[in-house]
Amino acid sequence: MHLVSSLGNGRGRIDEMNIVQALKMSCRDATYLHEKKREGKISMSESMGLWFHLLICKFCALFFRQIEKLEESSNQLSEKQFSLTAERKAKLESDFKEELKR
Amino acid sequence: MSAEHKLEPEKWIERYADALFSYTFSRINRQDVAEDLVQDTFFSALKAKDTFRNDSSEKTWLIAILKRKIIDYYRKKSTQNELNIFDKPEEKDGFMNHFFDSEPQYDGHWNNASAPKEWKKDFDTKLESDEFYEILNGCLGKLPEKWAAVFTLKNMDDLDSEEICKELGISPSNYWVLMHRAKLQLRECMDVNWFEK
User: Fold this and answer.
1) Would you say the pTM of this structure is higher than 0.80?
2) Which of A1, A24, B126, B169 has the lowest tally of Cβ within 10 angstroms?
3) Contacts of residue B89 in chain A, CB cutoff 8 Å?
4) Domains contained in chain B, CATH given
């Protein structure tokens, strides 16, 4: 950070502020950025801040890992079979037959 | 288009009722809602049978109609009010404060009770039991509809954020917030009901 400000121009100051902001990222913000990161919609400074946050915060790192597992399993869930109750199916069958006759 | 082109409505219920129900129930874990959507799909399909083109199978065509019904269900489930609240970056409200500290000196840090912990059980998506999937389905079912909608459209239907926003009529900032909240609640629900058990 010292290096950046020593450039001595206005841009250096802005970059420095971004870095300070990035280093102060909260867990609330880091978890919010998970989806943006997944979709590649994350800005440079967000990406840097998140990278650093995940390096030092084991909770958020764990959150990211666990969420990705749950996303995978949700994808599997869409392949699972469920059945209508026999009762409901019979009712549907007879209602639909009625409709077909009309 | 004549009836010989493979539409056989008299066989629909027997052939597809369970498939359509599975499709719906894995996404919307509400028995009565799922049953109604399936019924509605068959009746709508019957009315629209002249629009059937034989370039798709009967089943694919029925699923396409069902998909529209599911999206419509999600759309109707969002009150404009709820969306207005979420149409900005993440707020410190009751929901968020359950997970994250709101005191200035620890602002936004995980609360001790809510911070993720290593799962006590081994985990492998491919090897998980039916019971695991029932609990996952149940936890998705406990999310407010709109939160479940963004999560399932993304992770089960593989839509991207732009498509989901368009389908649900929500803004991108809504989307990020809804998704964030869905993930926080889903992970915690799975912790409590599966991994910590």
Assistant:
1) yes
2) B126
3) 32
4) 9-76 (1.10.1740), 80-195 (1.10.10.10)
